[in-house]
Batch of 2 targets.
Target 1
Amino acid sequence: MNDLPDVTSHYSSDGLADRLIAILEASGIDRDSITEADLHSVDQMHLRGRTAAREFLDSLDIRAGDKVLDVGCGLGGPARMAATRYDADVTGIDLTEALCDGARQLNALVGLDRVHIEQGDALAMPFTDNSFDVIYTLHVSMNIADKAGLYREVTRVLKPGGRFGLYDVVAGSGGPIHMPVPWATHSEHSHLIPSDAVEAAANAAGLATERSEDQSALVETYLDNQRAARQLRVEKGEPEPPTGAPVIMGESFVQKQKHIYRNLKEGRIAVRLAIFKLKED
Ligand SMILES: C[S@@+](CC[C@H](N)C(=O)[O-])C[C@H]1O[C@@H](n2cnc3c(N)ncnc32)[C@H](O)[C@@H]1O
């Protein structure tokens, strides 16, 4: 019998939103005055955090009123950013109910209830064909073995001519990854494939590549700078800035962060940003 917990238990824990809000309060921000931008230090579940999300979303050319879908929206950080930044009509879908709950609570906290959060599987989305102008995903396909199924589903709900963007961790050439990592405790839940295979799967589903970029060096520099800044704070006895990492990644967050750094430095993983356009009928 397979008694492995499913992907959602990896991401689930109680009271996520309240614990993240408490982190912001401890840094001196009053609960009633927390803004969408304040949440960025605790609600971005991907490498290079808010900076990566902003640059990635900007490259999708989202217009006011566009219907946008965030696949694997987690706590809704990028979805709220997209709604605020471009005045778009954003829906987020995620497999993990605890994260959907957290996302809805954070939406309500900052007055963004119009960002609609739906619990569901990226491989069988509860949306009709040709529903969205733009679809994107950040750090999700690492949990999904069936890449062809994922991109098939994306192309089904994306309007012809619409854009799809991904910002994901992919397999490097350096060998098996050190576990655990932020997206998986068990290797059975980590489904990394090389970036050319990701692109081939997307292309085969009808998504034409507009841009494809290895962002590993950017992420490495970011992590090196973070480490140096932390060391300086320790030396000066300064407090740590607010971070959602311990709440989001749980007890082993330090080990998971170390493994990300090591896997990247040893070429076991890479970080890919790609933008595609769905062929017109
Ligand atoms: C690392 S988190 C990224 C969350 C968010 N995209 C962000 O960057 O802040 C990965 C997310 O993918 C979701 N996920 C994994 N497999 C999924 C699936 N088959 N369908 C929908 N969501 C999925 C998880 O529940 C989790 O919220």
Note: The chain has a mean pLDDT of 96.
Target 2
Amino acid sequence: MTLTTVQPLTGRRALVTGSTSGIGRAIAIALAREGANVVVSGRGKDAGGAVVETIRAAGGAAHFVRADLAESGRAATELAQAATDALGGPVDLLVNNAALLIPAQSLREVDERLADLALAVNVKAPALLTAAVVPAMIEAGAGVIVNTGSLSGLAGNAVSAFYGATKAALHSLTTSWAAELAPKGIRVNAVAPGPTMTQENAAYHETLRSLAAITPDRRPGTAAEVAAAVVFLAGDDAAHIHGVILPIDGGHQAVR
Ligand SMILES: NC(=O)c1ccc[n+]([C@@H]2O[C@H](COP(=O)([O-])OP(=O)(O)OC[C@H]3O[C@@H](n4cnc5c(N)ncnc54)[C@H](OP(=O)(O)O)[C@@H]3O)[C@@H](O)[C@H]2O)c1
């Protein structure tokens, strides 16, 4: 037996949407730490560039590709092509993480503009981006897709119905894609974080703490904890895992 340090994602070409901040940034950094060559994407060029610099400074490989996924159809196709160019080959690990996090809203506060935007970024864009990268995965006979869902898509919630509906749609896409693509060697799974603390939502950490107080673990999660689950689902240790919506919520799902 040899005990050596290996980077299990070495050679993998990853695209992480919404990785200019928060959970996506943690995912991009964690995948790069495990050896993946990573495209960081979002609208924010400076923020994305800073994530790329962090990864490169630590010895990893990363590139920034700007995309506004509200323009879902064209943006998805262009992002897939630009990521392929930046990575020197087709994406074999896609993390659909970007989302419009609609602030607390009652039924009447979701107008048509907000509804269209949330559907475009949270549902249409992941669907069209996945459709754009999957043909190369099918040709290669391998690939991994991990979607960032949400506890809000699993459980009812009085203040985020429409956002929750978009996440429930992403969970549904996850299980259906898993069924369609598993026979072609492609694994599709999702993570479903509960309240999760990031640098960007620091102003809401107290709110997140009070939301998480009812969970068995009695605390919010961290972006790094979500990223660790994505790394697991991306790697070969998860080779027999398809169509899972993995809650990362301190046990909330277990007791609701
Ligand atoms: N934090 C939580 O408590 C929590 C809980 C459950 C699930 N989640 C899920 O976790 C994921 C990340 O959330 P987060 O807390 O890290 O939020 P965040 O910090 O606001 O990150 C959202 C990311 O999405 C990108 N994005 C938003 N609109 C976009 C657009 N039109 N085009 C391209 N990119 C866009 C943003 O990049 P730019 O601004 O640069 O475009 C950013 O990188 C989301 O899917 C969210 O639903 C979060």
Note: The chain has one domain: 13-255.
